Amino acid sequence: MLRAAPDLGKLYVLVKAKDKAAAMNRLKNEIMDEDLFGCLKDMHGKSYYNFMMDKLVPVLGNVCEDDLGMDPDTTTRLAGEIDVILNSAAFTTFDGSWVWGVKNIIPLCLTHSSSIYCVVGWSKYGNTDHLTYVAGQTEGVSFEKALTMGQSTSPSISAPLVDVDAEIKLASEWNKSLQDGNRKAKKMRDLGIERAKIHGWSNSYEFTKAMGEMQIGRMTGKVPTVIVRPSIIESTYSEPFPGWIQGNRMFEPVILSYGQGHLPCFVGEANTIMDIVPVDMVVNAILAAVAKHGITAKPELHVYNVTSSVENPVALIELWEHFHDHFTLSPLLDSRGKTIRVPPPIFFTELHSFSAYLREKIVGKNGLQENLLAIDPKSLSQIQRECNKIVMRSTYLAEIYKDYVCGKVRFDSGNTRKLLQNMSTQEKMDFGFDIGNINWRHYFVDLHIPSIRRRILKEPFISSPVAASRI
């Protein structure tokens, strides 16, 4: 927004911090100094920080508290100044925080009824972002329909209807009754998983997001509301530059483990359609949806799936072949400077089969089967510990991703396609999100993997391995 629409007024950023100085510090360290804004720095030069300080206003608060943790004067002032509220949050613990966050924002929207409320179904901190919170454990095609208060995942699953208020009350009572510490965190996680599975979801992450969306239905007919649901979010395709993403999550741990020779196989159905979207296309779709419904200002609820599984599907086996192509053309080096050769993709549908094969390959790779007598006991023990560490980490990754690489649901994006089609040529150039035009091989081989190697492994810039192979 700051780059493409510099004439906008203010962007108020709700920041959780101990005081205003700490909030300003977070704004500077986590936003202004981020390399994502390099283009803005180039545009504004020495006046960059002045420009950002003029546009960005940190607001001390907390979405989990009444009135978002803001003082009454701030709440009144913001209600009269804001035109759009963007809410993006999720929690992996079952303490009701995400649901309370949605519930606490609703009064602010209703106070200033001309504002548009946009909820984004993603989490900055999650390992995998996916729309399973909408579909639960169902199969087939999931359409762009809002979850309604009280429903379970699907009529085909025998699960009790969700009473959101009762679930929040239960979580709050447990949270208050337990003493702080590791046991409390574990008990809350266990409770979340139990409650989620009762209603047809896999975990508390999905369940709390679903309940949050159900809460939004209470605003229907009162405030223009948009729900944007992205699937697994990966690095930028083009804007502001290709390959940017924050942190080390989504598929990055899997990709790097494979390239480092630690993941000769993986768990999953080879033909499972993966649903992946570049983050810049998600952002552009959000801006387009907000602009469209902000202009009309009709108090309606609209849902947009920013997804690829119907529009531009890529199977797990294809994804792995792209990983294989990249590391074959541009391999990583081991600690001795030797080339790491990656095997073609092999998949197992059961975790125990995956772990057994993985252990056999890792042990064989380190020569433990043939050379047991030739290795001194101290070195042998060290190698065994390293092998166990690799197997445990890889099994952990497989457990995290198994729901996403064995799923049988696809997410329709008809509303999102119509949104794009209704944009002008110039708007598409400035805020395009045509997921159907993504070349997945180019994206992963030439853009995404080189970027994560530079960012996480601190490698210097390398040119496209595909382009290099043609020279």
From TrEMBL:
Residue intervals of the Thioester reductase (TE) domain: 1-286
Domain Fatty acyl-CoA reductase C-terminal residue range list: 384-459
Cited InterPro entries: FAR, FAR_C, FAR_NAD-bd, NAD(P)-bd_dom_sf
Catalytic activity: a long-chain fatty acyl-CoA + 2 NADPH + 2 H(+) = a long-chain primary fatty alcohol + 2 NADP(+) + CoA
Keywords of this entry: Lipid biosynthesis, Lipid metabolism, NADP, Oxidoreductase
One GO MF term: alcohol-forming long-chain fatty acyl-CoA reductase activity
Domain of life: Eukaryota
Enzyme type, top EC level: oxidoreductase
Family annotation (Pfam families): NAD_binding_4, Sterile
GO biological process per UniProt: long-chain fatty-acyl-CoA metabolic process; suberin biosynthetic process
EC number from the UniProt entry: 1.2.1.84
Known role: Catalyzes the reduction of fatty acyl-CoA to fatty alcohols.
Annotated family: Belongs to the fatty acyl-CoA reductase family.
Protein name in the entry: Fatty acyl-CoA reductase
Organism per entry: Turnera subulata
